[in-house]
């Protein structure tokens, strides 16, 4: 585990986890970091012992977390918001979104929209958003269990790879800021506040995995 101080830019090595794992999900809930799923980093197979481990930011110590109710071997995205029952939402290689309950380890699933290559996801004001490369930004209606398009968005240029995050109640792309409005019971629209290419020399085959917003300065 490595810890980066965003103010000073210094990187230091943190306490060693209980087990070494690869392709696991990482989610932050209050003052604890949850690491779960993945495969044994040594044997490259699903780890049969500890499925979840928790790092306490206050005590700087690791302890065992609630074991998952299902096997989650390969995970590549994760997002968490306390306003959604303190559950961690995870993207897996099977494209499904798994919901991990930190209280008892129970896992539920959300099925993405059919036939679309989905990218990153995040939660803004209790609504799940996911960017689909072939369609655009979509939001999930939990009661009807269906995905709908966020209308009204126009970007400057084409993005080969997308990562999104929540920022002060708005949705931030790496190269754009979106103001969302409407009702999750009816329809949601978006307005691009700004959209611009931040870096000039980016290879065409880049793959943007994730980014984090730091506002505590």
TrEMBL record:
Pfam family, one: Kelch_FKB95
Coiled coil: none
InterPro entries: F-box/kelch-repeat_ARATH (IPR050354), Kelch-typ_b-propeller (IPR015915), Kelch_FKB95 (IPR057499)
Domain of life: Eukaryota
Domain FKB95-like N-terminal Kelch: residue ranges: 1-198
Entry-linked PANTHER family: F-BOX DOMAIN-CONTAINING PROTEIN (PTHR24414:SF99), F-BOX/KELCH-REPEAT PROTEIN SKIP4 (PTHR24414)
Protein name, as recorded: (thale cress) hypothetical protein
Organism: Arabidopsis thaliana (Mouse-ear cress)
Species lineage: Eukaryota, Viridiplantae, Streptophyta, Embryophyta, Tracheophyta
């Amino acid at each position: 585990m490595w810890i980066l101080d965003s103010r000073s830019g210094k990187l230091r090595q943190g306490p060693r986890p209980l087990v070494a794992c690869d392709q696991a999900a990482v989610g932050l809930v209050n003052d604890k970091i949850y690491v779960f799923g993945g495969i044994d980093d040594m044997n490259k197979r699903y780890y049969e012992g500890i499925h979840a481990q928790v790092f306490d930011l206050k005590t700087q110590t690791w302890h065992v977390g609630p074991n998952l109710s299902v096997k989650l071997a390969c995970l590549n995205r994760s997002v968490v918001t306390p306003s959604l029952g303190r559950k961690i939402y995870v993207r897996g290689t099977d494209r499904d979104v798994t919901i991990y309950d930190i209280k008892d380890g129970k896992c539920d699933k959300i099925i993405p929209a059919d036939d679309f290559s989905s990218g990153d996801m995040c939660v803004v004001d209790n609504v799940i958003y996911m960017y689909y490369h072939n369609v655009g930004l979509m939001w999930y209606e939990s009661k009807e269990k269906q995905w709908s398009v966020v209308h009204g968005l126009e970007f400057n240029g084409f993005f080969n790879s997308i990562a999104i995050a929540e920022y002060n109640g708005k949705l931030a792309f790496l190269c754009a800021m979106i103001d969302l409005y409407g009702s999750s019971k009816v329809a949601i629209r978006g307005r691009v506040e700004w959209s611009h290419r931040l870096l000039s020399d980016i290879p065409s085959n880049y793959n943007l995995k994730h980014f984090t917003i730091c506002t505590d300065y």
